Every structure is written in structure tokens, then in C-alpha cells.
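In response to the reviewer comment on reproducibility (Comment 2.3), we provide here a single inverse folding case reported in full, input and output, so that an independent group could reproduce the run without further information from us. The C-alpha cells appear first.
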């Protein structure tokens, strides 16, 4: 009951698939994430390295408590630790019933190949980035015009231009103003927050997937839709069911990039290092931005947008303290490992240097994009887009956070609501 009340319930209250702003403010005010980390630290001290079996009615569930077990579970996807848990299928089926994340063992490989090909998973900069950058920079220009008119940067402006940019990058100019697409996905995700408890909105889902398919059919040059048309497919791939997850991931990247701006605005030393790394670079040309990439990853370590990483056993497995049977849900609570001050010296500090190199299974598990075979196939694309947007804002404006939530002289908060961050801005002199 303590784990369900202190770890799981705040996740559900805040919204697993789409954040509820009012509940997010309440949960943040109660410091729910910090309390959840402390609870799991206490349970680890009391019961050992785990996994810790919970006595939950009608469902076998364990909580992973040790770093080596995190690595084992994530490296063992999809067999014997499958990503398509019962809970995940109940939520994501509301808007992507044939999506790769909830696909069976048989369907998963070809859908995963499709995603990796379209998103160019293995490269830090997407092979189509040159054309996409024009859309990204044009939308940043529009955002900066709004910022200068308002005299500051607020979430509402940032979010509006971000989502328009995402539609342009994904589908092209024909979808730039298709706000109905975004609204339909938002409504379906709101229903998905309730998983089993909310009936599927089949009519709205059909309309949404039809709109996705319509934009994909255009395959506008210089977009992800163009690369989707080139990716390998079969009759069982269902590209229109894969793309909603990309839009979902870009929404989470929205929060992460805005929080990163807050961190850099309140940590002038790191902002200076970022500007040094950007000096002489033309941000209108495709390139990896390693320091800003590290800053975004660090923002995701401090406040992961996917706090609960779930897997389900497909067969019985053996552990140091005993067996775990088939069909057991395994919960990895990312903030527990990201902010574990009993083992991580920088648990509550902004330390981009933690990401100066690729992390391996020999490292303490920081898993903002999961890890192993189930790692997010769009992670490099997301990091390139977010670092480019942040780089433009950082080099062209001075940003001052209007509150002191992120004062580097104090431990950073366990939760950070991006919706309330506000910045004063001033133009920066040309280099």
C-alpha cells in the first residue's frame, strides 16, 4: 500500500499519458517524487537489493531496486521482459492500437525496423535534417517575434510554436495549422490516462488515424513523412499507428527542452559553456550539438518525462533471492535511480558532464529514453531538435528565470512543473 500510494498513485494523478496541469501543480507542491525516492530507499535498506514483490490483488508486481537488475531487465527485452505490459496496452491502445510499444513478440520486429528506418535511429543527426532544419528555424523565428512582443517567454507561446514545428517536421506545411490533429491526439491521450477505466473513443481515434494517414500519403519532401514512405513496410506494419508515438514523444521533448531552458537560465556557468560550444556554429545547418545534447539529457535525468518504465515477464525467471513467475509486471521507477543521493553524488545538481560519453551497462542506470533493445528509436532525433531550438534561443536572447526554483546554491527540486516557468528576455549582441 505504501508503494501504491507513494509511487504509483502520484503518477496516475499527474497523468501517465498526458499531464493534468492542476494535478501536476498539486503533486509538485507535495514533493511527491522526492518522497517516492525516499520511500524506495527505505525499502531497499529494509528488504535488500530486490526485486521487491508487492502484494497487489489480482496482479503480480515487483519493484526493481538495484542497478544491475535494471540493466538485466532492459537488456532482456522483449524476451523474457516484454515492453507490452497489460497496463501499457490498456493505455496506448486508445490512440495507437498497433503501435510498436504494445505489439506482440511476433509483430514487434518489423514495426521496430520501420521506426528505426524512418527515424534514422543510429545517427546523431537525421539524414534528412537539412530540410527539417528550415522548418525548425522558421518556427523559432516566429517564436522569437512573439517573445519580443510580449517581453518574455511563457509556456503558452513556447508550446504553441513547438507543436506547430512538430507538425511541420513530421508532415510538412500541409499540416502546419492542423490543430485539430493535435487536439484529437490530446483528447485520446486524456482518455488513455484512465487505461481500462475509460471506454475507447473509437470514432475520434478513427478520425485521428485517418488524418495521420492523409498527411503521410502526401509524403511531403523534407519531412519525416517522406522518410516514412521510404521505410520498409508490410501489410502488418500500420505506419499510421507508429507515428502517434512520435508525436507523443515530441510532446515530452517539449517539457524537457523548456525545463532545460530553466536550468541554463539559472546556471550561468553552464549557459556560458553552452554558448562557448555554440560559438562559430551556424545553427541553420545540420550538426550535432554535444553540450546542449548533454544539457537536455541532464534535464531528463532530473525530471524524467517517463518516470515508470514497465516490463512484463513472458516466462518464469530466477533471481538471487528466488523466482519471479510468468506474467509479472516489473516496475522500474526512474527517479529512484536518477535522484538516489545514497549512490549518486550529483543527484540533486545540474551536471551535464554526466553525459560527456555514452553510458553503458557498467554505469549507474540513468534511463531517460529507456535502454537496451527497447530504447526509444527517436532519441537522437528528439535530442537534435531540442538542442537546436535551445541553441537558437540561448545565442540570440538572454533568459532570466522569474523565480528562484532552480537556484544552484540549493538542491534542485524533486519535481518541476514546466507550465509555470516564465522568463524575462533581452536580445543578445551579435557575436
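Designed residues, in position order:
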Amino acid at each position: 500500500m505504501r508503494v501504491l500510494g507513494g509511487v504509483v498513485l502520484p503518477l496516475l494523478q499527474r497523468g501517465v499519458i498526458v499531464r493534468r496541469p492542476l494535478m501536476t501543480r498539486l503533486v509538485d507542491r507535495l514533493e511527491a517524487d522526492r518522497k517516492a525516492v525516499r520511500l524506495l530507499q527505505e525499502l531497499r535498506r529494509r528488504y535488500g537489493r530486490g526485486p521487491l514483490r508487492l502484494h497487489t490483488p489480482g496482479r503480480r508486481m515487483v519493484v526493481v531496486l538495484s542497478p544491475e537488475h535494471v540493466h538485466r531487465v532492459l537488456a532482456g527485452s522483449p524476451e523474457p521482459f516484454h515492453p507490452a505490459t497489460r497496463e501499457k496496452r490498456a493505455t496506448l491502445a486508445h490512440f495507437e492500437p498497433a503501435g510498436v510499444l504494445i505489439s506482440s513478440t511476433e509483430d514487434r520486429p518489423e514495426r521496430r525496423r520501420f521506426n528505426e528506418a524512418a527515424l534514422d535511429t543510429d545517427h546523431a543527426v537525421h539524414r534528412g535534417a537539412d530540410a527539417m532544419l528550415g522548418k525548425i528555424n522558421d518556427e523559432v523565428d516566429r517564436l522569437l517575434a512573439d517573445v519580443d512582443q510580449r517581453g518574455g517567454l511563457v509556456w503558452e507561446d513556447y508550446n504553441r510554436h513547438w507543436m506547430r514545428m512538430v507538425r511541420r517536421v513530421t508532415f510538412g506545411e500541409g499540416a502546419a495549422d492542423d490543430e485539430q490533429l493535435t487536439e484529437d491526439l490530446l483528447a485520446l491521450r486524456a482518455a488513455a490516462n484512465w487505461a481500462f477505466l475509460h471506454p475507447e473513443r473509437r470514432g475520434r481515434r478513427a478520425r485521428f488515424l485517418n488524418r495521420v494517414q492523409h498527411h503521410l500519403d502526401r509524403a511531403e519532401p523534407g519531412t519525416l513523412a517522406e522518410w516514412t514512405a521510404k521505410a520498409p513496410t508490410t501489410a502488418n506494419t500500420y505506419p499510421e499507428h507508429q507515428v502517434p508515438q512520435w508525436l507523443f514523444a515530441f510532446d515530452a521533448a517539449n517539457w524537457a527542452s523548456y525545463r532545460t531552458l530553466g536550468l541554463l537560465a539559472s546556471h550561468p556557468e553552464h549557459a556560458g559553456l553552452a554558448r562557448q560550444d555554440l560559438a562559430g556554429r551556424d545553427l541553420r545547418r545540420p550538426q550535432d550539438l554535444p553540450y546542449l545534447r548533454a544539457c537536455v539529457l541532464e534535464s531528463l535525468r532530473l525530471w524524467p518525462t517517463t518516470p515508470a518504465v514497465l516490463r512484463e515477464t513472458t516466462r518464469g525467471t530466477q533471481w538471487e533471492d528466488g523466482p519471479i513467475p510468468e506474467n509479472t509486471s516489473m516496475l522500474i521507477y526512474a527517479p529512484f535511480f536518477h535522484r538516489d543521493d545514497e549512490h549518486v553524488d550529483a543527484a540533486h545538481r545540474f551536471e551535464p558532464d554526466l553525459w560527456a560519453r555514452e553510458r553503458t551497462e557498467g554505469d549507474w542506470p540513468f534511463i531517460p529514453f529507456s535502454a537496451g533493445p527497447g530504447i526509444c528509436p527517436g532519441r537522437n532525433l528528439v535530442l537534435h531538435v531540442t538542442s537546436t531550438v535551445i541553441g537558437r534561443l540561448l545565442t540570440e536572447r538572454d533568459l532570466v528565470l522569474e523565480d528562484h526554483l532552480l537556484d544552484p546554491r540549493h538542491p534542485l527540486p524533486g519535481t518541476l512543473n514546466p507550465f509555470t516557468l516564465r522568463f524575462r528576455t533581452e536580445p543578445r549582441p551579435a557575436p
